Amino acid sequence: MKLSILDQSPIASNQTSQDALMSSMRLAHAGEQFGYSRYWIAEHHDLPGLACSAPEVMLSFIGAHTKKIRIGAGAVLLPHYKPYKVAEIYNMLATLFPNRIDVGIGRSPGGSAEATNALSDNFLQQVFKMPELVQELLHFFHQDFPSDNEFSKVTASPLPEVLPIPWMLGTSMKSAILAAKYGLAYAFGQFMSDQDGTAIVQAYRENFQPRIPGQAAQVIVTVPVICAGSSDKAEEIALSNLVWQLLIAKGEGKNVPSIDTAKNYAMSDKESEQFNAMKKRMIIGNPKEVSLALLDMAKHYEADEMMILTITHSPEDRIESYRLIAEELLK
Fold first, then answer.
1. Contact, 176 vs 200, CB < 8 A?
2. Nearest-angstrom CA–CA distance, 97 and 74
3. According to CATH, what is the number of the domain 2-228+285-329?
4. What are the record's GO terms for cellular component (predicted)?
């Protein structure tokens, strides 16, 4: 089974934003050494505890510090941007790092309403135009606009020898059908969903229309995971992430708290329910437990690849989690 990494570049309570971004670079480098297939970094705007607002900048940095792992955005929040500029950026990356670039495409705002308004005009109207934006982006990548289109003579230069590979990221039937319509690979964000997404993934496969002859549907499922040498240690490490999410939910979240801070956090009855619900959506355990759970989920979704999101207070614990999983499943 292929395994990959989704990184939200979390900032721990004892870190600066620079520390967090450097930790992301080290994670990508370690992931390459462990045998992970790809590393994607997310785009967020003015969200507490998350450092990366410009994946394209980080991908340049990470590409220069790695050699073969595929790298990409998870995701470019397309309604904020003109497709032409996105095509230029990722063609540039694909020219610098040949046959290594993925372009995850998403439609969420990635931040608060205020940050969204500061970043772009008419965001909601652009969300409604998402099919047109996706189609335009693909035309710029493939340079195949109809001759009567105003952009038919516009080149998203530089043109790489191997094009970036576009992926549609989502958690809904709408995103799955859109991916299928345009022949895109599909990444289902289980970590952002309260529902079993098997019907969504199945609809994607059933409706898939190849853009290129011989092209097959391709599915990644992204899941939150904490792995450690023992189940108890994994549970302890996971506390930081879970309590941080509780704090964010009530507007008090800043950076990822330490394990000791998380242990001492007094939860209300309502927060205890939220805590347990969030924990059920995660895979937490020792290497054997985690590997079996990932294999089971991959079989359940008929996924081609599993992508792992791991947030810990300690960067070392995060890298160790990925290492232990790789030793079990990527031998």
1. yes
2. 17
3. 3.20.20.30
4. cytosol
CB 169 within 8 A of CB 107: no
Tokens of 152: 């038919």
Helical ranges in 36-129 per DSSP H? 55-64, 83-96, 113-119, 123-128
Taking the model in full, what pTM does it have?
0.97
Contact 76, 104 (CB under 8 A): yes
Tens digit of each residue's pLDDT (9 = 90 or more) over 62-71:
999 999 999 9
Strands (E), 146-245: 165-170, 185-189, 219-227
pLDDT band at 51 (very low <50, low <70, confident <90, very high): very high
Beta-bridge partners for 77 = 106
Q: Classify 305 as helix, strand or coil.
A: strand
Q: How far apart are the first and last CA of the chain?
A: 11
User: What does the domain layout of the chain look like in residue ranges?
Assistant: 2-228+285-329
Backbone angles phi, psi at 159, to 5 degrees: -90, 115
Q: Cα dist. 272→226, 250, 266, 285 in Å?
A: 20, 13, 9, 20
Indicate the average pLDDT of the chain.
97
Residue 199: exposure state from Cβ atoms within 10 A (0-12, 13-18, ≥19) = exposed
Instruction: Give Cβ neighbours of residue 264 (< 8 Å, ≥ 6 apart).
Output: none
Q: What are phi and psi of 281, to 5 degrees?
A: -85, -5
Q: Give the CA diameter of the chain.
A: 65
Whose structure tokens read 């031998």?
A: 331
Contacts of 142-151 spanning 24+ positions with Cβ under 8 A:
151/84
Handedness of CA 108, 114, 132, 164 (dihedral sign): negative
